[in-house]
Structures are given as C-alpha cells and as structure tokens.
Amino acid sequence: MLRELGGRIPRSRKELMAIPGIGPKCADIVLSYAWGMDTVAVDTHVETVSKRLGVAPPSAKYEELKYRLERLAPPKFRSRVNDLFVVFGREVCTKSAPKCWMCPIYSLCEWKGKYQRKRKFTRQKR
Questions:
Q1: Active centre residues (catalytic)
Q2: Which of the two ends of the chain, N or C, has the fewest CB atoms closer than 10 A to its terminal CB?
C-alpha cells in the first residue's frame, strides 16, 4: 500500500480510510496529530464523556459524536478535544467507576447514573 501511495501519508480522511485497517478513529488521529488539522478524534474516553455530558444520545455512533463535537468546538480547539476528554475520562469520568464526587463539572452532567454513583461516594479529606 505504501508503494501505491508513493511512500507518503495521505492528508485526507478519505485517502487514509482507503488503507486497509485504517478506520475513522485512526484516520482522525493521523489528521489531528500528524498533520495538525482541526478535527476531533473520538476514542472510548471521548465517547463516554460526550454522552454523559449530553453532547449526543447514548445510542450515537462515531460519526454523529464527531459531528456534534465539531459543531461545539471552534476549529482551532478541535484537536484538543481528544486530549482533554481522554485525560478527564481516565482520571475522573471513567467508564466503569466514575468519580462523580470529585467531578468539577458535575452540575453539567446529564448521565442518569450519576445520582446513584454520587450517593455511594463521600468527599475525601485533603
């Protein structure tokens, strides 16, 4: 495949996704990180946080999440959405055991499970 491309990495999503094994997420990551393009890459953390914040319904798939996030984020900040949501999803809004008690944006969260989770946790003393 690299021979067919002349040894170059494509700069378009369509061309990247034509490469066997490259899907939407990988293509968006290459465009964002390798080429510095203003696009949102949606991984599992971005998906979890986005859906809990009500950016998209729980049934939303990759393209709908990407579309909605890109409508919300100004172009110059789109590539940062993945970075921010991944860190937030790993540290606070984890998929299996979210730390709602320490969430700085708890009041913005639309996730139905947050109320149950909040009751299970108590604030830790610092």
A1: 25, 43
A2: C
